[in-house]
Design a protein that fits this description.
Elements: H1 2-6, H2 11-25, H3 27-50, H4 53-67, H5 73-87, H6 91-121, H7 123-138, H8 145-152, H9 156-180, H10 184-192, H11 197-208, H12 210-226, H13 228-231, H14 239-249, H15 252-275, H16 292-316, E1 324-329, H17 333-348, E2 352-357, H18 360-368, E3 374-380, H19 385-391, E4 395-413, E5 431-433, H20 440-451, E6 459-461, H21 465-477, E7 483-488, H22 492-495, E8 498-500, E9 512-519, H23 522-525, H24 527-535, H25 540-551, H26 556-566, H27 568-572
Parallel strand pairs: 1-2, 1-3, 5-6, 5-7
Antiparallel strand pairs: 3-9, 4-7, 4-8, 4-9
Helix pairs in contact: 3-6, 3-16, 4-5, 5-15, 6-7, 6-9, 6-12, 6-14, 7-9, 8-9, 9-12, 10-11, 12-15, 14-15, 14-21, 17-25, 17-26, 25-26
Subcellular location: Cell membrane; Membrane
Keywords: Cell membrane, Membrane, Transmembrane, Transmembrane helix, Transport
Membrane topology: Multi-pass membrane protein
């Protein structure tokens, strides 16, 4: 019996097989959804971005003034909150996030309310659907990113997919609850008067369940907002990318500012969705129905406004002489520096460049399947060996931007009296502070602990790149012992007196190159951009100077611009 129980049930393999089957046989369907969804969401975000920020703030203040019974509190909050967002150059990010919230909430409500009605009408349906909702609501939100990327790639569409799945349950549950709580006598009265099932639903049950339904809608909207940061990991633009970047770089101030922007949007969405149920607490006699004429006028005005804004949004889309190019990168200091410099050089040549932050595995996939044009952060031959082995035949290797000058290693402050990994005994509580669990650097650090007998009792603590540098800085400020899993180029070697420990067994790998990878076909589609990326090459001092400036608080774009201005001869060699 024990042997039987110890046999691992192949649940993961079954799920992988299902996803693989879906992506293989329904690829056309998913691609159609992605194209339509991306088109719609870009139109919405472009439309919102086309409205001058000051005008949009004033419009929202006016709407809030009349929506909230001519009270001044909400309009003032909107003025202060959105003015802060605009002042901190986060307006475009806010518009992307608002688009994600609007579209995801609309889909979740459109799907959730009918399912809730079905559950209320059928005990069998409720018995089947309820456990599914339990799984959807308690499953870690990060798990939804995996099928989202598999089905739709990167961008706003997979972010919407993950958000809808995560945020759907409240609307379904509360719609079901509201209808089931309608007084039985009222339902029987409707039946006795000859009302059909549809009439009973529309004229009795839904109006009386309105409070619960709108409570579910409110909760769904809030849960969509909670997915903002998670969705940013698969290239969904918006405020979430700013939060994620701040966390990974350990930038407390920047993270707080982006977090406040999310809070401002959350409060606005919460108050406006609650106001949709503004007749709550009133009797049926107190509610004055809107006249047919007024409905027509209001609907026509709304439709006209939407058409005008869509036209403005379409006219506002930027056009360039040489086309658009997307550069994928991970939120790691070396990739942020390299990608920003390359992006600015390409923009100076007339390209419209979009930078998309992703996790390392997703970055490789995005370039391989053509959703991104290139990446400039592949560490080869060791760190990203597994990713390159899986997708290398679908990528165009343009060679090294930093040739055999990169390396991983265990690093310590110079005041520690150890020079080799073999010298380590009980320093730093026998703990190595690492970075993200899935990083190649982390895998190398774990292999190093296994390779050296003197590290048998040592432990690798995974965290993030930002947390690792923060721990190093804290330890150095107090002259404490610390061992970190680091890499070069990195700004810590410019700012602190830090040294790599010798690695006689080669557990952390040897010298590496940072390689540029492009999608197949880029050379034919954009030969000039391809040439710039192919020629892009610089040294450790160059990249670390940009990284250090970014770490000290300079915006990455500005830091890249400074380097370009100071190195015109090197930049001219790339063109």
């Amino acid at each position: 019996m024990d042997d039987f129980l110890q046999q691992k049930v192949p649940i993961a393999q079954v799920i992988d097989a299902i996803v693989d089957w879906l992506t293989e046989y329904l690829a056309g369907f998913f691609n159609l959804l992605r194209i339509v969804g991306q088109t719609v969401m870009e139109a919405i975000s472009n439309t919102l971005a086309a409205i001058p920020p000051i005008l949009l703030i004033l419009l929202l203040m006016v709407v809030a003034y009349f929506t909230f019974n001519k009270k001044w509190q909400m309009p003032v909050f909107i003025l202060i909150g959105l003015a802060m967002v605009y002042n901190q150059n986060m307006w475009d990010d806010l518009m992307y996030t608002l688009t994600l919230v609007i579209v995801s909430s609309f889909i979740a409500i459109a799907v959730g309310v009918p399912i809730g009605i079905l559950m209320a009408k059928s005990d069998k349906a409720q018995m089947v659907i309820k456990p599914i909702l339990d799984v959807m609501q308690t499953m870690p939100s990060f798990v939804y990113l995996i099928p989202a990327v598999a089905f739709f790639g990167i961008g706003m569409v997979p972010g919407t997919f993950a958000s809808v799945i995560f945020a759907l349950p409240p609307t379904v549950r509360l719609t079901n609850l509201g209808i089931r709580q309608v007084d039985t006598e009222l339902k029987e009265a409707s039946d006795s008067l000859g009302g059909t099932a549809w009439q009973k639903l529309v004229k009795v049950e839904l109006p009386l369940a309105k409070g619960n339904i709108f409570a579910g809608i409110n909760q769904t909207t809030m849960m969509v907002l909670s997915m903002v940061v998670v969705a940013s990991m698969i290239g969904t633009p918006g405020l979430g990318q700013g939060v994620l970047a701040a966390v990974q770089r350990s930038q407390i101030g920047s993270g707080f500012v982006y977090g406040v922007a999310v809070v401002v949007l959350a409060i606005m969405m919460d108050r406006f969705t609650q106001s949709l149920n503004k007749n709550r607490g009133k009797t049926q006699n107190e509610i004055k129905p809107m006249s047919k004429k007024r409905k027509i006028i209001l609907g026509g005005a709304t439709a006209l406004a939407v058409v005008v804004l869509v036209v403005i949004g379409g006219m506002s889309q930027s056009t360039t002489n040489k086309g658009s190019i997307t550069l994928a990168y991970a939120e790691q200091d070396d990739q942020v520096a390299t990608t920003n410099v390359a992006a600015q050089v390409l923009e100076e040549e007339g390209y419209n460049v979009t930078m998309t932050a992703l996790d390392i595995p997703v970055t490789f996939e995005a370039v391989a399947n053509g959703q991104a044009d290139a990446m400039l952060g592949a560490w080869l031959p060791t760190t990203h060996k597994a990713n390159y082995a899986q997708l290398g035949d679908q990528l165009d290797n343009l060679g090294a931007s930093l040739d055999k000058q990169a390396q991983n290693g265990l690093a310590v402050p110079s005041y520690m009296d150890v020079d080799s990994i073999e010298d380590l005994t009980d320093e730093a509580d026998q703990t190595v502070t690492g970075v993200e669990p899935g990083a190649g650097n982390t895998a190398a650090a774990q292999a190093t602990l296994e390779a050296y007998p003197n590290l048998d009792n040592w432990e690798l603590t995974t965290s993030s790149a930002g947390a690792m540098t923060t721990q190093l800085e804290r330890a150095i400020s107090q002259e404490e012992e610390v061992v970190v899993s680091a890499w070069s180029p990195h700004w810590i070697f410019s700012r602190f007196d830090v040294k790599f420990l010798e690695d006689p067994k080669g557990g952390m790998g040897g010298a590496e190159s940072i390689v540029t990878l492009a999608r197949q076909g880029l050379k034919d589609d954009m030969p000039e951009a391809y040439q710039i990326l192919d020629n892009f090459e610089w040294g450790v001092e160059d990249i670390e100077s940009v990284m250090l400036e970014v770490e000290e608080g300079t915006d990455p774009e500005e830091a890249a611009r400074h380097w370009i201005e100071e190195n015109p001869e090197k930049v001219s060699e790339w063109n």
